[in-house]
Design goal:
The chain is α/β, with parallel strands linked by helices. Helices cover about 30% and strands about 30% of the residues. The chain has two domains: about 1-110 and about 225-295, FAD/NAD(P)-binding domain (3-Layer(bba) Sandwich); about 115-225, FAD/NAD(P)-binding domain.
Length: about 300
């Protein structure tokens, strides 16, 4: 039986594995190598690694974990999990199963892209979901925000921190009079027409074409995505979801012996925050394992 099984080999999962490895815990990390940020060209806001390619960061993490013999890494999907005596039993894609004392889910989330012609090809290059991740690269450029209602209004206002030339594209949606007034007072223009396509050159957005009306020259489009868990394990094990992410208590714990860390569990979805949450969960798990060993020695 492993001390800890970590499902997800991204930033949160590998950060947890590093801390637990240094605590001499037997850890097994499972990864499908399909991270949320695989379309991104660079990871930003991560101290000492600002601008690193996401897959390069994962490579560095795996390389450093090789120093800790109690940590194993497997490229395989965990398809099921259930509570078992003294921990959890996980079922793998090849039909095998194994037991662990603690389970950490760090599988992240999946963003739902806008259903716009050209959006998928441009995602990660000039179509983005996070200004904290990519706003700096688009600073002072003409940008568009895709959305409507309160979400679209607030997101367009947020983008003013990076550019003074922001246009909110409603794609046939609507705004309240109060929202229209706020946008107007802050210099955000609004296009209400339905969007026909995003036109680009060499992977870079050039203009937004509408079903009616003049095209809108833009350098980037930001959207606020709907999200869902990238795997069903957390929900299957009884975790509560709020807006697609898992609600956790102190130290990323959800239930006894079950923890969730990273983008799957928080609305502040930054790489450096995911790393901190993985370390925090590992700290809590190791503390519990220590307490269990003390009890057994009495």
């Amino acid at each position: 039986m492993y001390d800890v099984v970590i499902v997800g080999g991204g930033i949160a999962g590998m950060s947890a594995a590093l801390v637990l490895g240094r605590c001499r815990r037997s850890v097994l990390v499972f990864d499908t190598c399909k991270p949320r940020n695989r379309a991104s060209r660079a990871l930003h806001g991560f101290l000492s690694r600002d601008g690193v390619h996401p897959f390069e960061l994962r490579r560095i993490a795996r390389e450093q974990l090789q120093e800790y013999p109690s940590v194993e890494y497997r490229e395989m999907e965990v398809v099921d999990a259930e509570a078992a005596e003294g921990g959890y039993r996980v079922v793998l894609a090849d039909g095998s199963s194994l037991d662990c004392r603690y389970l950490l889910i760090a599988t992240g989330i999946i963003d739902k892209l806008p259903q716009l012609q050209g959006a998928e090809d441009l995602y990660g290059r000039s179509v983005f979901h996070c200004p904290y991740c990519d706003g700096w690269e688009m600073r002072d450029q003409p940008v568009a925000v895709y959305g409507c209602g309160a979400t679209g209004c607030e997101y367009a206002l947020e983008l003013l921190g990076w550019s003074s030339d922001v246009v909110l594209c409603l794609d046939g949606g609507d705004l309240s009079p109060q929202q229209q007034k706020r946008l107007h007072e802050n210099g955000v223009k609004v296009r209400r027409e339905r969007i026909a396509a995003l036109e680009a050159r060499d992977g870079i957005l050039e203009r937004i074409v509408f079903v009616t009306g003049e095209p809108l020259p833009r350098r980037a489009l930001f959207f606020h995505p709907d999200q869902r868990q990238s795997c069903h394990l957390a929900e299957k094990l009884g975790c509560s979801l709020n807006g697609g992410v898992v609600e956790t208590a102190k130290f990323q714990q959800t239930h006894a012996r079950l923890y969730v860390a990273g983008d799957a569990a928080r609305s502040v979805q930054l790489g450096i925050v995911a790393a901190a949450e993985g370390a925090e969960a590992a700290f809590a798990i190791n503390s519990e394992l220590l307490k269990e060993s003390w009890k057994s020695e009495r």
